Amino acid sequence: MKPFGSHTAQPGGSRHIRPRSVLALADKEGRQILRDPSSLIIAFVLPLVLLFLFGWGISLDPTRIPLGL
Predict the structure, then answer these.
(1) How buried is residue 2: exposed, middle or buried, by Cβ count under 10 Å (0-12/13-18/19+)?
(2) N or C: fewer beta carbons within 10 Å in the chain?
(3) The dihedral of CA 56, 58, 59, 60: what is its sign?
(4) What is the distance between the alpha carbons of residues 1 and 15, in angstroms, rounded to a whole number?
(5) Which of helix, strand or coil describes residue 43?
(6) What is the pLDDT along the chain (69 residues), one digit of tens a residue?
(7) Are the CB atoms for 59 and 52 separated by under 8 Å?
(8) Is there a contact between 43 and 49 (Cβ–Cβ < 8 Å)?
(9) Are residues 50 and 58 in contact, defined by beta-carbon separation less than 8 angstroms?
């Protein structure tokens, strides 16, 4: 196994993401979520709460606007 950062990029070449490493990362993250279920609350419930709060707080209906003539 090579040390981190020891690879050399070829000029004009492209680096490909290996599907196996993506699956390994998804598996690791899935196990982490199962180990710590509070991360599900942070990932899904908290944004929904913020969406409703901002939707309620930021209204585009102009009401109670003082008007001077």
Answers:
(1) exposed
(2) C
(3) negative
(4) 18
(5) helix
(6) 666 666 665 565 567 889 999 999 999 998 998 898 888 888 889 999 999 988 888 877 777 778 777
(7) no
(8) no
(9) no
- For residues 28 and 34, the answer to whether their CB atoms sit within 8 Å is no
Distance spanning both ends of the chain, measured CA to CA = 78
Place of tokens 């680096």: 15
C-beta neighbour count of 21 within 10 angstroms? 9
Task: Say if residues 10 and 4 touch (Cβ distance below 8 Å).
Answer: no
Please state, in angstroms and rounded to a whole number, the distance separating the CA atoms of residues 48 and 56: 12
**Predicted local distance difference test score (pLDDT) of residue 51:** 93
Regarding pTM above 0.70, the answer is no
